[in-house]
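Page 42, continued from yesterday. The earlier attempt failed because a stray header line got pasted into the input along with the sequence. Redoing it now with the clean sequence only.
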Amino acid sequence: MTAIALTIAGSDSGGGAGIQADLKTFSALGVYGASVITALTAQNTLGVQGIHDVPPDFVRQQIRSVLDDIPVNAVKIGMLSVPATIEAVAGSLAGTFAGPVVVDPVMVAASGDPLLTEAAIATLVARLLPRADLLTPNLHEAARLLGQPVAGTIAIMEEQGRALLAFGPRAVLMKGGHGTGAEAVDVLVTPGGLRHFSAPRIPSRNSHGTGCTLSSAIAAELAKGHSLEDAVATAKAYVHAAIAAADRLRIGQGHGPTHHFHAFW
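This time it went through. Structure tokens are written below.
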């Protein structure tokens, strides 16, 4: 059987994040990728120059077109910048898709440009997080969702992960890539306990799209039928290798992408 994953996210015209990163990741991990585009961005390695939201009705139509025909095994949800789009996605998945859903709460681009409006956060929490099998916030996103300071220790990451469970996701992966120290530690928080995933921190300016890549890699592994812990472990190793190989690429003048196809070229 062909493993199939669907990404519902925004497009990155520079090719390093969003839909483009998701589809590259699916392909690199041997999974067929389908896509629903929620927004278009005018974006490059230097930043985001513009955002054009896709009409919510057309987002619904894209989801319906895919799910009516293609047997999707897992869904990854990324950039949803306005409440109406979040409502469209949540409503379209309700009752039509029973598989695992990974939600990456994309709020701010690596360049610092905001990608999620304040008005959308409450809708995200109320409508989409209860449907998530896994929520994958970075430290800044977790702090913004909770209205708390950014976690500065592993213990606070664990506390914030438990607090986010109260919003309804079945598990939370607190991503430690924006932390400090020699090790980048991600913390998987579930009702049953905690698990840490560590990798040496790699100094590289080419880290654009790492969050999108990690969440889509997890979705790809879930689409193959792997357990959540195994999916996170494989995805973490894949992203670490992609960052390690990123400086082989010469893309743009700013923060370049990770090397999604490091194992192939």
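Notes: Residues 4-148+205-248 form a domain with the UDP-N-acetylmuramoyl-L-alanine:D-glutamate ligase fold (CATH 3.40.1190.20).
Reminder to self: strip header lines before submitting.
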